[in-house]
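Batch manifest, entry 17 of 40.
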Amino acid sequence: MRRKLVDEALDEAKAIGLRNILALRGDPPRDEEYRLDTEDGEEERDVEANNEVFVWAVDLVRYIRRRHGDYFCIGVATYPEGHADESHPAEQNPEYDLPYLIEKTKAGADFLMTQLFYDLNAYLKFEKLLREHESGVFKDIPIIPGLMPIQNYQILKRTTILSHCKIPSALLEKLDPIKADDEAVKQDQEAFIFTPST
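Output type: structure tokens
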């Protein structure tokens, strides 16, 4: 994302008293969506404002800290079941992500927010891994679990495929008899979300 857009978003957040920022890398923007035109209609070509400034989330965390000090409470993403991308296509493993998470945390993150999950045991194992990590950087940092209520069975299936999040077999067994009834699926969210893995 272009630096000018980041600066504008942060300045606007500050102006309205918003202090919590979740610093995500996200998908690379398509240039036409973020074209910044000058008054004469030519595309801005300022080298400092190009899309390469914030390649990784850690770049954004460092920039926010450098520009705004401790004004913002900065959160970063983490993945209880491991981040699914090209770097480790054969296996998701949260340990692969730890060097990057350590870097983001040391750069100035105040809290961690997890990717959505439905496997409570995977989350608890992940939290233990962080709290006991030899670096010590996760010992006291708040970890916010990414919980997404189940609105209907098809959305659940699609979302978990896109996020590479596992659905525990115990949860699938509970959902199977009611998967065609959206209202029934919505009724007992706590039982669904906190179903231990088998």
